[in-house]
Structures are given as structure tokens and as C-alpha cells.
Amino acid sequence: MLPLLFILLFFAPSLTHACKCYIQSDEESICSKYAQKNFIQVTILDVIDEERELRTLEAWEATNPPSNTPPFRRVSVRVSARVVEVYRQDQDSDLSAGDVIELESGYASASCGVGYWINPGATLIINTDNTNNRTWLSRCSFIRDPYSMSDWAWDRLEELLRTYEC
Questions:
Q1: How many CB atoms lie within 10 A of CB 61?
Q2: Which fold does the domain 40-163 belong to in CATH?
Q3: From 29's CA, which of 56, 69, 84, 141 has a CA 20 to 30 Å away?
Q4: Which UniProt keywords are given for this protein, alphabetically ordered (predicted)?
């Protein structure tokens, strides 16, 4: 019992933080988490592969509004995405607008809710160290969905992504 308590006390705060870090948008949090990264905007084209798990109805209803959809949760997803804009990139990257890349999210990301964002038609701002054809998305890869932000907040964030030196 004591080892389990230790594990929960040690890891719970970091898990809570990890699930929140993809919704940060202020200058300090962006600079502290995303310095020396590539910032790109992508539009999801198609789901290539996904894995889902069935949750118990009680667990589903605890975190989702009532609906007629089955209580599945996406635990991993691989998608094709078109690069809309490259805000900043390192010297080793030759990524440009119009390129089609693959993005993949694993269990830890999807369990934090990221799996719900990665759907055809979604436009996302992501940051990554790897802009090769296939990019692994971590829990902290996402900045924001620009269409869920106010115009003022988006203009401020977009300017920060283009020019701010951390």
C-alpha cells in the first residue's frame, strides 16, 4: 500500500501539469516550454490509423455530456496533415506551407484529451523538434486551435510565434 501511495504522490502533480500544458498561451509559458522548437499550423486531412478503447459508461459520463455515441476513447491516432503555415523552424528543417506530413499521437496524449482534437478538418498550432515526414505529438505539442480563440488573442499569439525570441 505504501509504495502505491508514494507513486501517486510523486507522479500525480506531473500528470496533472502535463495534461494542462497544451492549453497554455501566455508568453512566459510558451517560452519556457517551447524554446528552440518548430512552430507550424496544420489542417488535419484524414485519419490513417487509430486505436480506441471502450470505457465504462460511468467513466464516460463523468467526463462527457450525455450523448448517443458509444463511450469510446481514442488511445492513439495517426493522421495526414497539410502544413498551412510555418511560423518558425530550425535550420535542419525544409518544411513549407502545402507540405503533407503525418502526425501521430500516443496513449498519454490521447488520454489527456488530445485525441479528440485530431480530426479531419481541424486546424491546430503545434510545436515539435521533428518536422520530418512523420512527427510524434507529445502531450505538450499543441498550443491552441486558432479558431477557438478570440481574434485579439489569436493575433497576439500568432505574432509571438513569428517573432518573439525566448
A1: 13
A2: OB fold (Dihydrolipoamide Acetyltransferase, E2P) (2.40.50)
A3: 84
A4: Signal
